[in-house]
């Protein structure tokens, strides 16, 4: 009976760890970060966002992050009814449910110049689920092979780490 309880515990721990380990962290704008010079259309074109992922906004004191509550506010750069405003320069936003979220810079004029992103969060499916920051232009560029390789390597390592921890826990539990 004790062996069954240990196995159930091990499966629960491994499942929780795998879920967290496989969640992606997206630095908004890539290496350029949250900045006016960033081409958000190019950045977002190859991104896929899932429940559990995190957005990381890295920026200077010239900017901020404003989450908008509707597509209308996003299209019109209307920050007067912001859902949330962040200004730490290193903000993390957890994507906790499927749907669409809208972000822009709160600095006057930056939204109108394209410093905004529309994030569509999937519920675990592997289809692309993001949209360019402006509806007037589209980009067909994709992620670089290096970026794809890094993402696969990161997820592969995370899976390997979860297996090692699960094996270690199993071994420790079998000693009792």
List keywords for this structure.
176 residues, alpha+beta, single chain, 9 strands, 3-stranded mixed beta sheet, 6-stranded mixed beta sheet, elongated
What features would you describe in this structure?
By secondary structure, the protein is of the alpha+beta class. It contains 4 helices and 9 strands, in the order αβαβββαβββββα. The protein has helices at 2-22, 40-45, 71-75, 145-174; strands at 25-27, 49-50, 54-58, 65-68, 84-86, 90-94, 99-104, 116-122, 130-131. Strands 2, 4, 5, 7, 8 and 9 form a 6-stranded mixed beta sheet that branches. A 3-stranded mixed beta sheet has the order 1-3-6, with no helix packed on it. Helix 1 packs antiparallel against helix 4. Residues 16-21 and 125-155 have low confidence and may be disordered.
One letter per element, helices H and strands E, the order comes to HEHEEEHEEEEEH
Structural class: alpha+beta
Main sheet?
6 strands, mixed
The Rg value, from CA coordinates, equals 20 Å
The total count of helices amounts to 4
Q: Share of helix among residues? A: 25-40%
Kindly estimate the percentage of residues that lie in beta strands according to DSSP.
Answer: 15-25%
The dominant shape is elongated
Spans of at least 5 consecutive residues whose pLDDT stays below 50 are: 16-21, 125-155
Task: Round the mean pLDDT to the nearest integer and report it.
Answer: 76
Number of distinct beta strands: 9
Cα separation of the termini? 13 Å
């Amino acid at each position: 009976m004790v062996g069954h309880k240990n196995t159930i515990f091990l499966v629960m721990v491994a499942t929780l760890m795998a879920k967290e380990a496989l969640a992606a962290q997206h630095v908004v704008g890539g290496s350029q970060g949250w900045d006016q010079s960033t081409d958000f259309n190019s950045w977002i074109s190859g991104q896929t966002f899932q429940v559990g992922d995190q957005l990381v906004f890295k920026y200077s004191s010239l900017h901020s992050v404003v989450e908008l509550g509707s597509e209308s506010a996003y299209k019109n750069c209307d920050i007067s009814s912001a859902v949330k405003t962040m200004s730490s320069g290193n903000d993390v936003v957890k994507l906790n449910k499927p749907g669409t979220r809208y972000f822009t810079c709160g600095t006057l004029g930056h939204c109108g110049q394209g410093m905004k992103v529309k994030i569509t969060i999937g519920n675990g499916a592997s289809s692309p689920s993001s949209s360019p920051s402006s509806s007037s232009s589209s980009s067909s560029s994709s992620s670089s092979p290096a970026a794809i390789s890094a993402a696969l390597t990161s997820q592969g390592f995370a899976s390997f780490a979860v297996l090692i921890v699960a094996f270690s826990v199993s071994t420790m539990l079998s000693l009792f």
